[in-house]
Specification:
By secondary structure, the chain is of the alpha/beta class. Helices cover 29% and strands 18% of the residues. The strands form 2 sheets. A 4-stranded mixed sheet has the order 3-4-6-5, with helices on one face. The chain has a two-stranded parallel ribbon with strand order 1-2.
Length: 211
């Protein structure tokens, strides 16, 4: 993760000491109330000052947005030049496409939709889990033309697909005890040439241009 965040470091930010010379505020937010949140907000209307944010980290958020363009416009507004967004999202490979179409009954996985917008039945229902593929892969040229202040600087699959499945993810019970983590990690390493086929999640990094 440190190597990825280093991709966001730009000359415009070199005067900011993230080790403490200047106070860095880390805020934890969600769209619904939960313990230990700093505040509740909608990613499509962040309520933060313009040019005030160094990094936005969003785990399984983007595909839940009914109007993703509003979020991307908010990134253009709130990020400092050279700052960025780290998005953890469902992947679109063959295994992921098979699994996501069948795993969550309240969420779709449709790579063929023409538009980016998705009707929502609530904060956690009605999502298109293929949205990051649609916007950042299939429609990458459209993304670049509509959001010229943002650029895609990193895309990669995550190697934790076996561990994710046996952990139960965010919605199901754990299938194996914690002692299985090390052998599963070893097996994932052995299978790394097949990761583009087997991966379930991807990491996407967007950066606000400095010029």
């Amino acid at each position: 993760m440190s190597a990825i965040l280093a991709r966001l470091r730009e000359p415009a930010l070199e005067g900011v000491d993230i080790d403490g010379a200047e106070r860095v505020i880390v805020l934890s937010t969600d769209i619904v109330a939960a313990p230990d949140l700093d505040f509740i907000t909608d990613a499509q209307e962040l309520g933060l000052r313009t040019d005030s944010v160094r990094v936005v980290y969003a785990q399984n958020v983007f595909h839940h947005l009914a109007e993703p363009r509003r979020f991307l416009h908010e990134l253009e507004r709130v990020l400092v030049p050279g700052g960025g967004a780290v998005l953890l999202e469902p992947y679109y490979g063959p295994v992921a496409s098979f699994v996501y179409k069948r795993l969550f009954t309240g969420e779709d996985f449709d790579k063929s939709v023409e538009e980016w917008e998705t009707p929502m039945a609530g904060p956690m229902h009605g999502a298109n889990q293929a949205l990051s593929y649609v916007v950042f892969v299939r429609d990458r040229a459209r993304f670049g033309s509509q959001f010229p202040a943002l650029e895609i600087v990193h895309c990669s699959t995550l190697p934790n697909y076996l561990r994710y499945v046996v952990s139960g993810g965010l919605n199901f019970r754990q299938l194996l005890p914690d002692v299985a983590i090390t052998p599963l990690r070893t097996l994932e390493w052995i299978l790394r040439p097949l990761r583009p086929l087997l991966a379930l999640h991807q990491l996407i990094v967007l950066r606000k241009k400095t010029g």
